[in-house]
Amino acid sequence: MTIEQARARDAADPLRHLRDRFVLPEGVIYLDGNSLGALPRATIDAGRDMIEHQWGERLIRSWTEGWMASPARIGGKIARWIGAAPEEVIAADSVSVNLFKFIVAALRHDPARRVVLSEAGNFPTDLHIAEGAVACVPGASLRVVERDALGDALDGDVALLLLSHVHYKTAERFDMGAWTRRAHYAGALVCWDLSHSVGAIPVDLAAAGADCAVGCGYKFLNGGPGAPAFLYVAHRHQAAWGNPLSGWMGHAEPFAFADAYAPGAGMERWRSGTPSMLAMGALEAALDAMADVDPAALEAKSAALFDMFAEAGDALGLECIVPRKADARGSHIAFRHPQAEAVMRQLIAQGVIGDFRTPDVLRFGLTPAYTGFEDIARATQMLGALLAPADCTAGPASV
Ligand SMILES: Cc1ncc(COP(=O)(O)O)c(C=O)c1O
Ligand SMILES: Nc1c(O)cccc1C(=O)C[C@H](N)C(=O)O
């Protein structure tokens, strides 16, 4: 596709106006929103208000003027992105910390089952945290198997199946409904890590019958570096499950300053310590900036961006490691290339920001809210120029 054709597609894109809601630096084609989302313009003013007014002027009064309620309020704003009811979601801590909470909670919930099952090659923190969490629970162990062996490994010992909805490297998407049903049939609970799906493709935890989920605030939700993550617990489990990181902010009455812990109602118990309010404010501003956007429209745009990139990749002879079927993948494209690291370094030096993932993967995030067709046309042209073998037959540029 020529640059002119790509521009025409951008002009016809019903989501094109969303791009203006983000700060996108001149001279940069940003294809890494699946790692760190771009800065929403609204976050700048919200950050100023948070610092100058809420912190600077209102000082400690802000805790009762909105800060204490913000994890649940923000959770309620995330709910629409994941097919949850507002009171099933809360913003808190990091994905890593929240995974720990759920793994220990699930193991405690059913003492007859001692195994946490996950996929080999899952995002490292999921496996590392699971390794640490099972070590805290007597008799528990972690079972890690290849994707095609998950079904057989889902036996009567499994307490929790821990899966990333979209794989961070290959973008493969699990069929959430089918795998949740399989886990339930085996008597296990499921925890979905939504880090690479939330904010880019529709997620429907309720329709899938999911038990619990965690997700990231700084990728497609654009909440800023180190943004708070979130937790989801289905209504039906909320009363019975407990947070092993039982900090005072998750207490039923934090300001009763009691010695003994009593869990807060609903999702409140999944809080642990004091939230970072500057980070909460940035995440909330980002969610508000996208509150009118339909996740299905984002998915359709993501698919169109993917197809354009994949076609260009085919023409360059690149090996795409992401499924071609739109409903079997997330919102990035990735190629295997023997010189992936060097190629990505050069691309970044030229202003095309994707990333390299070991050992040989070139990865490009497609953030439907702000990535344009012209971005893809230019990025793939630059990629093609880098990959083209040096033309030894050509003479000097001028004679
Ligand atoms: C699937 C997945 N889970 C978790 C994380 C990150 O966890 P944390 O926010 O705790 O660093 C990432 C990316 O960093 C991820 O891709
Ligand atoms: N969280 C990150 C960070 O603090 C530094 C660099 C990258 C990240 C990431 O988010 C990595 C990302 N989850 C990935 O899919 O590779």
Automatic annotation (TrEMBL):
Homodimer. One of its GO terms (cellular component) is cytoplasm. Its EC number is 3.7.1.3. The gene is kynU. It holds the Pfam family KYNU_C. Its cofactor is pyridoxal 5'-phosphate. Keywords: Hydrolase, Pyridine nucleotide biosynthesis, Pyridoxal phosphate. It catalyses: L-kynurenine + H2O = anthranilate + L-alanine + H(+); 3-hydroxy-L-kynurenine + H2O = 3-hydroxyanthranilate + L-alanine + H(+). It comes from the Bacteria. GO terms for biological process: anthranilate metabolic process; L-kynurenine catabolic process; L-tryptophan catabolic process to kynurenine; NAD+ biosynthetic process. It comes from Sphingomonas baiyangensis. Belongs to the kynureninase family. Pathway: Cofactor biosynthesis; NAD(+) biosynthesis; quinolinate from L-kynurenine: step 2/3; Amino-acid degradation; L-kynurenine degradation; L-alanine and anthranilate from L-kynurenine: step 1/1. This is Kynureninase. The lineage of its organism: Bacteria, Pseudomonadati, Pseudomonadota, Alphaproteobacteria, Sphingomonadales. GO terms for molecular function: kynureninase activity; pyridoxal phosphate binding. Catalyzes the cleavage of L-kynurenine (L-Kyn) and L-3-hydroxykynurenine (L-3OHKyn) into anthranilic acid (AA) and 3-hydroxyanthranilic acid (3-OHAA), respectively.
